[in-house]
């Protein structure tokens, strides 16, 4: 083999090595650029999420809409606060056994009864609290249990006479399906004004629906917030949050029924 041939082969090998190294370098550079781009997108997305969270917190604290507000360094947030959705009733999802759902009757208009819906083999205990400063306070309660065998021992109603009606069947309220319905009369003009209704679930978890009949509840029984955070390059995050109004703890009912007292 001549010297010229050896030099030619060496040059060819060198060119091939340089090509391979170049291809690897381009691949590494492309991957680095892609990683940087992904990190940038994640950072911007995180910023828009934090902006939406901030709008949500402001709406919860002020109990009002949050107008579009510019943020230091760019971007903005806003939120809509809706407390009127529950005037025609609401559904509390997956209420644990022994827990309570409640609705205020203060500010209710024209209501003559409440339809209460629930599912599964759950029993319910309904408390209606009445009161005013002049005549004091009192409580009436109603029970219903779809399990007729169980009601032998707990003495809950399996059938209720008019004007209180309890039926099993197929019902839909607020797009949710239910198996049981209890209708309890409400007299807003009674000498002792009804101020609060509480529904306690027993034996099993269930969703609970409360539907006013003949009128509306006051707003604020449930709250729905839609928060929006916007940052650079128009990256937007939407957050939706719903909650029911704060309720008195379950122990409150036990004190009522035993004429006991609370000690802190």
Written overview of the protein:
- This is Type 4 fimbrial biogenesis protein PilX N-terminal domain-containing protein.
- It comes from Candidatus Collierbacteria bacterium RIFCSPHIGHO2_01_FULL_50_25.
- This protein has a five-stranded antiparallel sheet with strand order 3-11-5-9-8, with no helix packed on it. A four-stranded antiparallel sheet has the order 1-2-12-13.
- The chain has helices at 3-62, 151-154, 251-258, and strands at residues 66-70, 76-82, 90-95, 100-104, 113-118, 123-132, 136-144, 165-173, 176-185, 194-202, 206-213, 222-231, 235-244.
- The chain has two domains: 3-81 and 223-244, no CATH class; 84-219, Jelly Rolls (Sandwich), CATH 2.60.120.
- The mean pLDDT is 81.
- It is of the alpha+beta class.
- The termini are far apart.
Describe what is shown at a glance:
This protein is α+β, with helices and mostly antiparallel strands and 264 residues long.
SSE string? HEEEEEEEHEEEEEEH
Specify the CATH class of the largest domain. Answer: Mainly Beta
Report the C-alpha radius of gyration, rounded: 32 Å
The proportion of residues in beta strands is 35-45%
Query: Could you tell me the number of beta strands?
Result: 13
Class by helix and strand content? alpha+beta
The helix count comes to 3
Named CATH architecture of the largest domain:
Sandwich
**Distance between termini?**
103 Å
Can you tell me the overall shape? Answer: elongated
CATH topological fold name of the largest domain: Jelly Rolls
Low-confidence stretches: none
